[in-house]
Design a protein that fits this description.
The protein is of the alpha/beta class and 415 residues long. The protein has helices at 15-27, 39-44, 46-59, 75-84, 99-104, 126-131, 154-159, 169-182, 199-208, 228-244, 259-264, 321-331, 334-342, 357-361, 374-379, 382-391, 397-412; strands at 31-38, 63-70, 91-95, 133-134, 137-138, 141-146, 148-153, 190-193, 214-217, 220-223, 268-274, 289-292, 305-306, 308-313, 365-366. It is globular, with a radius of gyration of 25 Å.
């Protein structure tokens, strides 16, 4: 938000003007840095916000911080309104998937030359760093993350003879197949329930084998799902999926029905998704729910997961950009990030990760191509269609990938 420097009121000004100006001066003493954070911080770690505010104000005499807490469901509409009114906050928290459109339209300040001023910037989580980067330029600072893990029924795995989490993808597949055979009397039982069109899951296999979705070449986007490495991952995903799923789930998107609903109905032994899935797996199974890191095809490693999370950005309209960067540096300091970790969040850098399942899963991560038209790839269901095509056998993996590559490139290269 643009701060106002108080005007000096001349003695000759009319009384009504003096009264109005006096009211404004008492309201705007000093300089105010306006920060928009989501209510998660207000409810979960208000003391960390206070600590950052105090540190900033002590090192910036004459400045005070006004933190305004927002709701996820309407904060973007409110932000759009402040852009239109030329009255944006100085710092804003953004969901990592919301960053791209605003970076592409030039609404955030370039932070690239100041990167080293933020603690642990050389170790930021890959998925969060990617979400704050557009055309090779840094427009945000990673704040905290949420990862994807396996939520499973410990009773079924123990009954099948498995007492420890699997170390590799191949081992996990064998265990799931055994659990499935053990539970085949349960109608529609899926050892691992994941919708076939759930591309957040499927693309983990692509990145695990060194592949990618798309990259820029000579200024143009090129789809890369049909590349050699991507195809290896996709073929492995198909084999894993077909071995552990009922055939009917190939057309499900992972939200119809929702995975933890299937879990609560006793029709699966495991889900792959956000760590908070434990909230809703059903009272009947509350004492037999466990979690572990989804293993890579490389023994001992986690599969790369799509990270959810938040970034902090400085709107380009702010007249206090230096102060905004300083506040972000205070708020994302090593001390604060470690304190966030104790609150159950994933800190923003790999060197700060602890040994919880959630944090170990975040050690390897990926993000979508940073194009202003990526949202059109999603809403156009290009990836969902692609996955359904090869999982149902309508197209080969290679042919489906080639079609998807063409559609992705055409979409991302639109003006």
């Amino acid at each position: 938000m643009r701060y106002r420097v108080l005007a000096v009121v001349a003695a000759a000004v009319a009384l009504s003007v003096v009264v109005a100006t006096t009211a404004q001066s008492s309201k705007a003493a000093g300089h105010t840095l306006t920060v928009w954070l989501q209510v998660d911080a207000q409810n979960g770690w208000p003391e960390l916000v206070t600590a950052a505010n105090n540190k900033f104000e002590n090192s910036h005499p004459g400045w005070n911080v006004s933190v305004q807490y927002q709701q996820w469901n309407d904060h973007l509409q409110k932000f759009d309104a402040t852009i239109a009114g030329n009255d944006t906050p100085d710092v804003i928290e953004m969901g990592n998937t919301d960053m791209t459109a605003y970076m592409a339209s030039g609404e955030f300040a370039n932070l690239g030359q100041y990167k080293s001023s933020f603690d642990n910037s050389s170790k930021w989580l890959a998925g969060l760093k990617a979400s704050a980067t557009f055309d090779g330029k840094l427009y945000g600072v990673p704040y905290y993350a949420g990862s994807r893990v396996i939520t499973y029924r410990t009773d079924l795995f123990k009954k099948a003879g498995f007492k420890k989490p699997p170390k590799s993808m191949a081992q996990f597949q064998r265990e799931l197949v055994k659990v499935g055979k053990m539970q085949r009397h349960v109608k529609g039982f899926a050892p691992l329930y994941v919708g076939g069109e759930d591309w957040f899951t499927a693309l983990g296999w692509v990145f695990d084998y060194g592949g990618s979705i798309a990259h820029k070449s000579h200024g143009k986007w090129v789809g890369t799902l049909a590349s050699k490495k991507s195809l290896r991952g996709l073929k492995r995903f198909k084999a894993f999926f077909r071995a552990t799923q009922p055939r009917s789930s190939a057309r499900l998107d992972g939200t119809n029905p929702f995975p933890y609903t299937v879990f609560s109905q006793g029709r699966t032994a495991a889900n792959y998704g956000p760590a908070w899935y434990t909230c809703c797996t059903g009272k009947k199974y509350s004492k037999v729910v466990g979690q572990f890191v989804m293993p890579s095809h490389t023994k001992g490693k986690p599969i790369p997961g799509f990270l959810g999370g938040s970034d902090l950005a400085v709107p380009i309209q702010s007249n206090a950009q230096a102060q905004a960067r300083a506040w972000i540096a205070d708020f994302t300091s090593t001390t604060n990030e470690k304190a966030l970790e104790k609150k159950g969040n994933i800190p923003n850098a790999t060197n700060l990760l602890g040994n919880t399942v959630n944090e170990r899963a975040a050690a390897r991560s990926w993000f979508v191509p940073q194009s202003k038209h990526w949202i059109d790839v999603q809403t156009g269901n290009i990836l969902k269609t692609f996955l359904a095509q090869f999982l149902t056998g309508n197209l080969s993996v290679k042919k489906a990938a080639q079609v998807a590559d063409q559609n992705i490139a055409e979409t991302l290269n639109e003006p």
